[in-house]
Each structure stands twice: as C-alpha cells, then as structure tokens.
Amino acid sequence: LDEKGQPMAGIGKKLIGNRKKPVQPRAKATVEAILEATAQLLERDDGATTNHIAARAGVSIGTLYQYFPNRSSILLAIAERESERVGEALRTAVSEVDPHDPEAAMRATVRTVLTAFGNRQALRRQILLNLLPTEARDIDVVVVDRLAEDIRAILSQKDPTGVWLLDEVAV
What we know:
Blueprint: H1 25-44, H2 50-57, H3 61-67, H4 71-95, H5 102-114, H6 121-131, H7 139-156
Helix pairs in contact: 1-2, 1-4, 1-6, 4-5, 4-6, 4-7
C-alpha cells in the first residue's frame, strides 16, 4: 500500500476480467472473434496462447489486450458466455412445457443442462482444465450457483392458480 493506504500500481489488481467493454458493433464483433478463436484453439488443443488467439481471430495482439488482460480472462469470458446461453436455454425449455406439469419442467431442465455445451464438450473440458489450477477454483462454484439460482427462480415463479410466470422471472 502507498502512503494513502491504496494498492500500489500493478499490485493487488485482479488479472481476470475485461479491460475495455465493447460498445460499438464492430468492437463487439472483435470480442466475439477473440472468444470464438479461443474456443476453436482449445477444442483442437492447439496451444491457445494470446498470440495464437490474436492470429486466429485476425486481430493484433494489442487489440486483444485492449479487451482482455490475459488468457485467463478470455477463458472466463467464454465460461460466462456459455452460462448466459444455458440460462436462456433453460428459460426457453421450461416455457415450452405444460405449466401444470412440474415433472416435464424438470425433465426439460435436466436435458437442457446436460446438452448445454452442445457439440463443444471438448471446449468445456479445456476451459475447466485451464482455469481450475489458477483463478477459477471458485469460478466453477459461481457458475453452478448461478445456474441453480436460475433453475430455482424459473421453477418457483407461479401465479395463484399454479401457472408459471415465466415472463416475470428476472434471471
């Protein structure tokens, strides 16, 4: 800490998370290209260094570092993106079943969670293997907790007649 009790430059800063949030469509496309390039490299086990990721995404290493401080932050962003997709898929799956049939809702929920990564099981495995030894020991817990909260919220919102209020669930 410096004389004012603040962390000194570069010390105690998190190395995970985005640096700059994309606002414009082109910037969002750039971030998506970085995430997809990372996913492709991880699926092939092709050594997903930041240099390889930037080359695969068709961006400079400087552009990559504008949005992500390191490789772990890219992996975390992929995990968060997949978590959001699962939450949306859960809401959709449950909305398509009879609101008076909790067994059908539970089957839809389990089926959605089991197929969450679709054909990208290798990607999921690589993200977990790459993140678990470092910052992400707690990330898996956070993702599972968030998923459990999503399921709990979806299945608990009913009107007085027992019909699910899916439009009112804020997950």
